[in-house]
Each structure stands twice: as C-alpha cells, then as structure tokens.
Design a protein that fits this description.
Helix content: 25-40%
Number of strands: 5
Number of helices: 2
Distance between the termini: 12 Å
Largest sheet: 5 strands, mixed
Shape: globular
Order of helices and strands: EEHEEHE
Radius of gyration: 13 Å
Number of domains: 1
C-alpha cells in the first residue's frame, strides 16, 4: 500500500453513509478551517469512478458547507489482494 497527498475537486469525492453528526463539532471544525485552512488531508481511495472517503468525512462535509471546491487528500493505493483492515496504523 502506498499513500500520497494530492489535491482534488470536492465534487469527485463520495461520502460514507454516516448519518449522525453533532452540530457543535461541525461548527467548531468550520471555525478552525476558516481560520487555519484544511490542515489534515482527507484519506481516500479511488474506486475507478470516484474517490471514496476512508477517513475524514466530517472534514469533507465542513469543506462542502464552506463552499471550498478543492481539498487535499491522501490517496491510498492498494496492492492487489490487500484488504482494508490495518490501513489506519
């Protein structure tokens, strides 16, 4: 598995189906990103059609709320036969 940081259009990233977010934590992250920018890249993998979020869906949602169109991501590339477990070390 290799990881590299790239910048992609936000619209090319698809979220997970996480449904529960606390408004306060989203608002706090909004203030942080407004004052300091996107510090931590979103971790994604490419499924052949679009990028899928592995870690950082809340950052993705906040960037979308703020109208940010391009974000930094860590693109995780898999070797054939590699499984997802153990990716986040």
């Amino acid at each position: 598995m290799s990881k590299k940081v790239i910048e992609v259009d936000l619209e090319r990233i698809r979220p997970n189906l996480r449904l529960v977010y606390h408004r306060e934590s989203l608002e706090m992250l909004c203030r942080f990103i407004l004052s300091r920018g996107q510090v931590d890249p979103i971790q994604v993998w490419f499924d052949g059609e679009c990028f899928r979020i592995w870690d950082g869906e809340k950052r993705w949602r906040v960037c979308k709320m703020l109208g940010i169109t391009r974000v930094r991501v860590i693109l995780i590339e898999f070797v054939e036969g590699q499984i997802f477990s153990g990716l986040l070390e």
